Amino acid sequence: MTTYQLSHLRSLEAESIHVLREVVAELERPALLFSGGKDSAVLLRLAEKAVWPQRLHIPLLHVDTGQNFPEVLDFRDARVAEAGVDIVVASLQESIDAGRIADPGPGASRNRLQSAALLEALARYRFDGLIGGARRDEEKARAKERVFSFRDEFGQWDPRNQRPEVWNLYNTRHLPGEHFRIFPLSNWTERDVWEYIAEEAIAVPTIYFAHRRRVYRHHDLLWAVGPWTQPAPGEQTFDATVRYRTVGDMTCTAALESSAGTVEEVLVELSSSTVSERGASRADDRFSEAAMEDRKREGYF
What's the pLDDT at 260? Predict the structure, then answer.
């Protein structure tokens, strides 16, 4: 009798595709969150595989703070055009201009305001499921999530009010106004993501690889000099060879000095890393352990 053993990556792929097919089968108006980062690039590839040979009909959703890296926005638009899918952009700037969200002011991060823009998009388009690329290994609050994570009619998350998922069975029943956040990459690690990118030849934004950039050091982190990120008095700017392990907007995402210019070199670099990508370069998490859990209770993804 011949047996067939899936590799670790193909087992993860099969699990994720199963989750995505459950979404398509059980929910009426799902959307896939797509920022242009590495995790959402992998998630989009998996979603395309889940419905192949049909074209992906689930719309993409991007919450745009208005302070993003231009390279990431260019990649987002190119990948959306390649996939031939619709994208909804929930713009914080539009909400600020309309007076629905208060402007935090020049130089202030808009990262926490994403919750309000996301909830606006949920109400406007009546999405009953949002598929995202969050992983449990990223930080403590995300480790508490189910694969199908229930949200109440206010879009809020209560880690004590989640449904059991025994034997990969998912309870998708919900009332009007309630919805789910779905995490097909829950059991993946950062290394799994990069190995899958290598195996599938998935394109990702260029800022994930080593490049020269004008930066300055603030709170022991390297920040790109840009329209929304400027050094404080006494802080010097300089050129450095850096890359990014995670991609938020420019106000909350720091660079790392690195010479890793290929996927293979990134994997080698990860072998010696002792901190998660968010812990290493996301200031909004680094300076407050409860930051992510607090934001998730407010409706943040």
Answer: 95
Render pLDDT for 194-210 as a digit per residue (tens, 0 to 9). Answer: 999 999 999 999 999 99
Selected residue with higher pLDDT from 197 and 296:
197
Task: Retrieve residue 43's tokens.
Answer: 């998630």
Could you tell me if 138 and 218 lie in one domain? no
Pairing state between β 148-151 and 179-182: antiparallel
State the angle between helix axes of 38-51 and 190-200 in degrees (0 to 180), rounded to the nearest 10.
60
Residue with tokens 């189910």: 146
Tell me if 72 sits within 8 A of 36, measured CB to CB: yes
Domain that holds residue 228: 202-286
Model-wide pTM > 0.85: yes
**Which is more confidently placed, 56 or 105?**
56
Last residue of a domain, one of 149, 164, 193: 193
- Supply the DSSP string of 62-130, one letter for each residue: EEE-S---HHHHHHHHHHHHHHT--EEEEEHHHHHHTTSS----TT---GGGHHHHHHHHHHHHT-SEE
Query: Reduced to 3 states, what is the DSSP secondary structure of residue 222?
Result: strand
What tens digit of pLDDT does each residue of 40-90 get?
Answer: 999 999 999 999 999 999 999 999 988 899 999 999 999 999 999 999 999
Cα(244)–Cα(149) distance, rounded to whole angstroms? Answer: 28
Please report where in the chains the tokens 């993946």 appear, as a residue. 188
d(CA 278, CA 253): 9
Q: What kind and span of H or E run contains 231?
A: none
Question: Domain for residue 3, yes or no?
Answer: no
Contacts of residue 187, defined as CB under 8 A and 6 or more positions apart, other chains included, come to 12, 15, 135, 136
